[in-house]
Amino acid sequence: MNQRRAFTLIELLVVIAIIAILAAILFPVFAQAKAAAKATASLSNCKQIGTGSQLYLGDSDDVYPIADTFAAQNVPGPDDFALLYLGRIPADNPGRIDYVKTKSVQAQLYPYMKSNALWKDPNDPDAMPDPVTLNKRVTSYSYRFYMTVGFAPFVQGDGRARQAYNASRFQQPANSIVFHDVFPWSDFRFENLPQLNGARGWASGAKMTCAMGDSHAKRLPLSKAFMQSNDPGGNGWDYNWPRLGTTGDGWNNSLAGEPDLD
Questions:
Q1: Which of 116, 180, 197, 224 has the fewest CB atoms within 10 Å, i.e. is most exposed?
Q2: Rounded to two decimals, what is the model's pTM?
Q3: How far apart are CA 183 and CA 181, in angstroms?
Q4: Which domain, by its residues, includes 187?
């Protein structure tokens, strides 16, 4: 009668060591694959946002979305810089929730996208677009600030107000950013930046997911897509304006509509 031999303690330890080595090798690979899948999902979201924008243009005489100045002035707050309209800041009271649901750029594009879930980057822990939630941002992706700032309450009454952008203003739509990550969610890296006098900011090679003016989406390094900012309280980059910057009044200058990419 054959007797089955049990594993010795040394053999068990060898097996455990092999499993530990394999886990150390494979777990980072799995983590990288998961991160890559999330980045791909974010790229798909931006592509659909870009497509929704193009459909909106077809129904609006090729004019890009703009904030409702009256609503922005009267929302509890008010939304002085249109940051709530853009989706950059969370709604912190019920009146602002209603404003986001009915007047934000996300609300304007909803008939063409039919899904609020597309506004969330899988890597963004704070966005809650579906349903809109108190004290949560409605999107991971911001509409470009200069595209609607002329309709923000704080500029009304001066010569800079009421500047809307027609698609024809953009001579190179494929190189012009219309929507972008609020943060580089899929590539969150930091480094010491010369524009911040050596302070830490977002790494120049860190990539943001962007929807371009021709509706395609791509991930772009910050140094290629946005202009530098020396704001000591900032991250080293300014995504409010075209990459080439501004001349004086910003949204009415000749650089607005110029391509962000070379």
A1: 197
A2: 0.85
A3: 5
A4: 47-238
